[in-house]
From TrEMBL:
Name used for this protein in its record: ABC transporter ATP-binding protein/permease
Domain (ABC transporter) ranges: 4-229
The family this protein is said to belong to: Belongs to the ABC transporter superfamily.
Protein localization: Cell membrane
Organism: Rhizobium lentis
Amino acid sequence: QGAISFKDVHFAYDPARPILKGISFEVPAGKTVAVVGPSGAGKSTLSRLLYRFYDIQSGTITVDGQDIRTVTQKSLRSVIGMVPQDTVLFNDTVAYNIRYGRTSASDGEVFAAAEVAQIAHFIETLPEGFETKVGERGLKLSGGEKQRVAIARTILKAPPILILDEATSALDTTTEREIQTALDVVSKNRTTLVIAHRLSTVIGADEIIVLKSGEIAERGTHAALLERN
Ligand code: ADP
Ligand code: ADP
């Protein structure tokens, strides 16, 4: 479930300056495709189009064969978990922020035991004050802690599709490694689009797409790309 297809996708914020110039690729259900490339290449724009922050101007993006423009933003986003570079949290408790986005409203605030076990790893590493408000006078979370909250939220939401948009790039090396390990667990068996700035962080991807100036410059497995360069 969750196969993604980009077909000849074009996009420009300013009509005089095309950002994506005919992008086509697929993420088969359950697989991981990484998009790497220099800053400004259009990587984040790609992920934002899939999440429908913006609509494409020509071409098609489909999820499970369905054009994403024909489904509501809400139903599209219910199948996609997005872990951005800098997670912005609601001015509420960590618990609230983790629960936010749960699709089954009937479960309310009650966590199933299995879910608690799944997210315990992240919560353990959060500071005291799980029920204290995150905010100016409340809890101060580091970048790594915020990313753990975003990942825990994504685990609870359990979406078939994941977008990881430079999810670890704002973190120090040690935290990056910890968060990466967590993300590897979450993305296993989910359709995953990873946006990364370095090839070395996406070694395990099923396919890597190198984006340059809004065009696909190269594509292949990590090993194949290394061999060619
Ligand atoms: P990358 O993720 O590869 O660094 P982006 O997709 O963020 O690239 O940006 C591609 C280009 O689009 C850049 O030149 C950037 O300045 C421009 N851009 C990004 N977001 C906007 C926006 N909201 N409005 C106008 N231009 C933007
Ligand atoms: P939806 O609730 O329909 O999925 P939203 O645009 O409200 O769409 O939110 C998309 C995702 O972005 C949410 O799942 C959440 O992770 C995050 N998000 C949005 N707004 C905020 C916010 N103000 N604070 C924290 N996270 C937010």
